[in-house]
Amino acid sequence: MTERPALSLPAIHASHGGCWLRDGFSTRGVGKGDAIVAAADTPLLMLNAPLVASRLGYPDLSGLDLLELYAFIHPARFIVPTPKGLAHALGLDEPAGDDKVPLLLQEAAEALLATCERDDWSEREGAWTALQSLVRMRWPWATLLDPRIKKPERAERWLFSRLPEWEEAADRPQPAQVVLGETAITARLAALTGEGAEARPAQQDYAREAGRMFAPRSGQRQPHVVLAQAGTGTGKTFGYLAPASLWAESSGGTVWVSTYTKALQRQLRRESRRAFPAERDGKPPVVVRKGRENYLCLLNLEDALQGGFTGRAAILAQLIARWAAYSQDGDMIGGDLPGWLGTLFRKRGIAALTDQRGECVYAGCPHYRKCFIERAARASADAELVIANHALVMVNAARGRDAAQRPTRVVFDEGHHVFEAADSTFSAALTGAETIELRRWVIGPEGKSRGRRRGLSARLADVASYDEEGARAITQAREAAEALPGDGWLARVVEGMPSGPLEELLSAARALSYARDESGGQEAGYGLETEIVQLDGPFIEVAGRAQEALEALRKPLVRLGLRLEALIEDGPDWLDGPARARIEGARSAIGWRSDLIAGWVALLARLGGPGDPDYVDWIAVERSDGREWDVGLHRHFLDPMKPFAETVLAPAHGVMMTSATLRDGDDWDSAITRSGAPHLDIMPRLFSAESPFDYANQAEVLIVTDVPKGDIPALAAAYGRLIEASGGGALGLFTAIRRLRAVYGRIADRLARGGLPLFAQHVDPIDTGTLVDIFRDDPRASLLGTDALRDGVDVPGHSLRLVVMEQVPWPKPSILHRARRLEGGGQAHDDRIIRARLAQAFGRLIRSTGDKGHFIVLSAAFPSRLLSAFPAGTPIRRVTLDVALQSVSGGVSGLDAATTRDERIL
Q1: Nearest to 621 by CA among 612, 629, 613
Q2: Closest-CA residue to 675 (of 373, 145, 225)
Q3: Which residues, given as ranges, of the chain have pLDDT below 70?
Q4: What is the CA radius of gyration of the chain?
Q5: Distance between alpha carbon 597 and the CA centroid of its chain, in Å?
Q6: Strand partners, 622
């Protein structure tokens, strides 16, 4: 490490262990009150202002945030937003303690500012121009940067002229029909794992089994389906990338690999570099695809830069523009945009800079040829490997604009989540939030609304002027959309003063939910649900009027879609390539929303009649922290794999679902059912490989029997003592946010004073991905979270040595769960869900042969029938908290692997 001069500006650092202020050349501990006064008097250097504000209990805190400076100087570069992460990124010494952090902040500020004066600053282009705007916005760092960044000799190009354009390409021919030989697959796997790597027979068998999904299909609607369970450490990724890369290379086709978590997407992107070249024929063979709402919309950004954003949001827009110039693919959610950047601005603006509402004008946009979304879509059409997520694969299969781009060879990694993704994708929700978005999409801005958002009339003005019937359909759709909920709908519904037939329906639905509520008001922080049965006449009449209003909107939209289709088939002279692409996009969006409304109409049409056995319908009032935020009617398939089979499996040629927790113990029945294959009368191929880890000596499961259920002080004390015993490195999993917050509030300060930082979802103003990055980077840190941390989190053993679950992860007793429980065998259905959750959580603990750790469940009533969730050979004991603390302090017990399960749980 090299010593650097320190900027003499005062700096502050606050943690749960205390506050430290450095002014001049000395650092002193101060109370929160003094720290707040100092921050109010003068701008202070700090790291992650929202987190410091949270620690001080002073939400209005502002100052010179080093993360903002880093985002300006090094856009699209990764950094863990902690003092340690900052020190590593800048080549500075780690602070030895909290009291040394303020000096580090001064040194880091000087190091970053000095970067701007170096000739080798790789992100110099565009910085001076952006700074001029930030000076006018009075960004705190602007005055310090201004003398450091020289005005360029030539005017810098504007961002929108610097971004490269994508190019049109000819359609690819269909892939060749090839059969992969086992020898070739094994050889490709050996090349991927590297010379000298130890041969793993289980991985080789897995790769050969994965290769079977690429065989030519023998009949329509008869894809090759492979279900492969592979324990952690088998080497699944290279196992399926070996045959996938071989098939793509041999056939000229595209393989889609679908994940459920963004963490696995990032991992796949890294590891695919060993299977595919960086370029082939000037094009990237590997492309990451996500939904449109994940990417930066350049038209939204332009609007923000030109006055659409004000205050702090305008500063965010400038930093996003800096990032856009250096981003790999424009992915704002889980890509190379730092996840912490949005939280520095309280997340204002991030969503507004993406295409959240499907209002894209396609070729009508001046930035269409530079669009990140369009570039990714075209790149995926020519790619050999497309890395996507389950939802996108399903949506693309269901309503993809180009049938030739729909996935036909798909590997569903994290395959145990396919059912969950299908359940979400193929459901219908007639709610206030959904209907008001539809209104805005049709009508556009109303009243005092600002921004570039435009309704159908503005987006299709040229069509309206050319085609009289199309113009009439647009006008009728706009008039019909007036019946949808408008701004302020929720307040009117709550007050019993709805406006229009849809708000009347929502008001009646809310009243029915409260009338049938049997909680006695004890769970005011949670949502209400009631079945759509035994409805009275007035409710059905209200639903009938809402149905008529929706039909009045759907019909002109369908006619408009047909007019656009006719225009494309027999276009006028002005319909050039870009205009054709824009109308194609509009037709696709209209078709999607017509189908959405048709689903709502079908839901309302059955009210008062006999139930449809394929569906589960209910009414819900959504609440959070005692505040209502949505009301509506919901419809889910009882078995969402039925539409999945028709939409995804039937057109496919080969599908593989793989996971470490695909089946329930040794039982394949649930995995087969949840694959969708039975709906096509297909028997999938089954493969299983056990994890190579020595669980008898690497892990231990402890069921703690003396922490009373519902006793928050006892629960918090148990968490605090366990984290202290392990020296940090603990992942705490909760089934309720309320209990998570209560435990965190009781133990965070105490742990911090012992040098054990604690972070938590739903408490710290940091996104989940960044929280995991912080946890991974600090072996003494611990992290509390909910379901999002139970699966897909890959943290090395030196940082994750202990997993603690506050209780058995019982399924939420919702109406939908009750229906599926009845269909799936009652208690056996619940047990399968719980065992899967336990297995997924346990899978966070041991990720390599060198890992060791404990898995603890704080539940005296843990049923023995659930113990099969844990890998065979894992020591399992029911113990008191004191005994558990001794085990955690002393390390893994190393009980004899030959001990029977019955003996181990006594």
Answers
A1: 629
A2: 225
A3: 1-6, 346-348, 357-358, 400-405, 447-453, 520-525, 571, 573-574, 792, 892-906
A4: 29
A5: 26
A6: 630
Residue 873: exposed, middle, or buried by beta-carbon count in 10 A (0-12, 13-18, 19+)? buried
451 neighbors 445 (Cβ within 8 angstroms): yes
Rounded CA gap, 269 and 30, in Å? Answer: 46
pLDDT score for 450: 53
For residue 508, give the H/E element and its range: helix 501-516
By the 10 Å C-beta count (0-12 exposed, 13-18 middle, 19+ buried), 725 is classed as middle
pLDDT of residue 49: 94
Do residues 511 and 542 touch, judged by C-beta distance below 8 A?
Answer: no
Per 3-state DSSP, the chain is made up of helix, strand and coil in percentages (nearest 5) of 50, 15, 40
Q: How far is 331 from 539, CA to CA, in rounded Å? A: 45
| CA angle 392–395–399, rounded 5-degree value | 140
Closest CA to 211 of 690, 646, 668, 685: 685
Output the CA angle 895-901-902, nearest 5 degrees: 115
Q: What is the per-residue pLDDT for 350?
A: 87
pLDDT of res. 902: 34
To the nearest 10 degrees (0 to 180), the angle between helices 83-90 and 101-115 is 40
Amino acid at 631: V
Token digits for 870? 């844990």
CB neighbour list of residue 900: distance below 8 Å, 6 or more residues apart? none
Continuous segment of H or E residues that includes residue 546: helix 537-569
> What is the amino acid identity at position 842?
F
Cα angle 644, 647, 649; round to 5: 70
Q: Which amino acid is at 682?
A: I
Ranges of H-type helices in 408-498: 418-425, 432-443, 456-459, 461-466, 468-481, 489-495
**d(C-alpha 210, C-alpha 415), whole Å:** 14
- CB distance 774 to 766 below 8 Å: yes
Return d(Cα 544, Cα 501) in angstroms, integer: 9
| Structure letter (DSSP) for residue 812 | P
- Judge whether 396 and 618 are in contact, CB under 8 Å: no
User: HEC states along 246-284?
Assistant: HHHHHHCCCEEEEECCHHHHHHHHHHHHHCCCCCECCEC
**Who's near 578: CB < 8 A, 6+ residues apart?**
363, 364, 368
pLDDT of residue 589: 85
Residues 316/67, Cβ–Cβ less than 8 Å: no
Enumerate residues 6+ apart whose C-beta is below 8 A from 684.
225, 226, 227, 672, 675, 677
- Is the CB of residue 849 less than 8 Å from the CB of residue 234? no
Q: Looking at 750-801, which runs of residues are DSSP E strands?
A: 758-760, 782-785
For 567-571, which contacts have Cβ atoms below 8 Å and span 24 or more sequence positions?
A: 567/463, 567/466, 567/467, 567/470
Q: Cα separation of 732 and 603, whole Å?
A: 40
Query: Which is it for the CA torsion 328, 776, 272, 229, positive or negative?
Result: negative
Count of CB atoms within 10 A of residue 52's CB? 23
Residue partners of 63: CB distance under 8 A and separation at least 6: 12, 39, 43, 44, 45, 46, 49, 140
Which residue carries 């262990």 as its tokens?
Answer: 17
DSSP state of 664: B
pTM: predicted TM-score of the whole model, two decimal places = 0.92
In our burial notation (b when 16+ CB lie closer than 10 A, e otherwise), range 509-537 reads bbbbbeeeeeeeeeeeebbbbbebeebee
Instruction: DSSP letter for 779, please.
Output: T
Contacting residues for 300 by C-beta, under 8 A, at least 6 apart: 308, 352, 353, 354, 355, 452
Residue 242 to residue 248: CA distance in whole angstroms: 10
Q: Do 642 and 547 touch, CB atoms closer than 8 A? A: no
Q: Which two tokens stand for residue 498?
A: 């709805």
CA distance 746 to 80: 26
